[in-house]
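Hi support team,

I submitted a single chain yesterday and got back a structure, but I'm not sure I'm reading the token output correctly. Could someone confirm the output below corresponds to the sequence I sent? I've pasted both exactly as they appear in my results page.

Thanks,
R.
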Amino acid sequence: MPPLLDSAKTVAQARAPRRVINMQKSRTTSAMTQRRLPPCICCSWPGLSGGGSKHFSTLSGHGASEGISEPESPEVLDDYIKKIKIGNITAWLLRDGTIEIPLDKMFPSVTASDWKPFTKSQPDGTARLSSGCVLVQVPRGDKYYNILLDAGLGIVDPPYMPTTDLRALLLRAAGVTPEDINYVVFSHLHRDHTGWAVMHDSSGHIVPTFPNAIHCVQAKEWDFWNSSDDTRTRTRFHTFLTPLEARGIVSKHNGETSLVPGVDLIPFNGHTPGHQVTKLHSLGQTAIFIGDALHHTAQIQKPHWSPIFDWDKAISESNRVALLTLADSESARLLSPHFPFPGVGRVHRQCDNSFTWKPDSS
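Hi R., thanks for writing in. Yes, this is the structure output for that exact sequence:
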């Protein structure tokens, strides 16, 4: 199967005058950090809030002292755990919270009238973004590779509260403990995607939550956010990421990487300099975990709508089109941590070259 970006580029060039844009190699990390950093979802700026739930009870045992909680009933649990299959690969979609953002703050260049076709279920002008991650289980003999795609909001200095306890969700969904995780793949290093990477131990020290996991990130992403005091502060680098590096459990990738059979990491920058997506493929079926390549389902029909969070809007738009083109051509399911939970569905190209979104019905 051809690499995502090369395949997407071929299809996109054939159907529309667009191309996949990658960062020019001549653009150094220093030059990249000289541009004004856009806000991210985790930043403290007016109009953003966390969306809590009334359906939680405090956990007894791990996490209880820190106010983390888990769903009480099976009915509510369905709003936080969803299982799907991609061939022989099992994916558990996990939600650990909700982030509420006024649309006019998130997409300042898009007018209220332009939003009307997309906001029938959100007439108050607020985007309610799911937050979470995906546990991927790939068979290896009579066992599995346990791979966590992104790490949600977390328990240490979380950008929004309350959150569900990801450790409890992993156990409830698949009987998996943090020690069972083999890999953690960061789509990028914004705090709502790295939160559960660390926790407090019994002495109050910050330690890796997944001590046996290799944490995978694009080298460009790591180098960018570790390049200045401003970028390190923005990502709380020394809190969330330095403990991983100190333990020797960070793997920095340069370009496309096959992690294990059926799991490919593919650079897909624009939202951040080293953003990546994860492609899952087995028995002729494909799914793509998109990270923050898209934040809102409206961007499927309007890929030129870039949120204020995107680092390079031109690159982000071009790569969104390439991603949607590829997903349509391969009938791949998209897995989104920010679309309404569970955030799974397919895109379809229309006669006018626009795209539509069809969420999974089951």
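A quick pointer for reading it: The first strand starts at residue 49 and ends at 51. Let us know if anything else looks off.

Best,
Support desk
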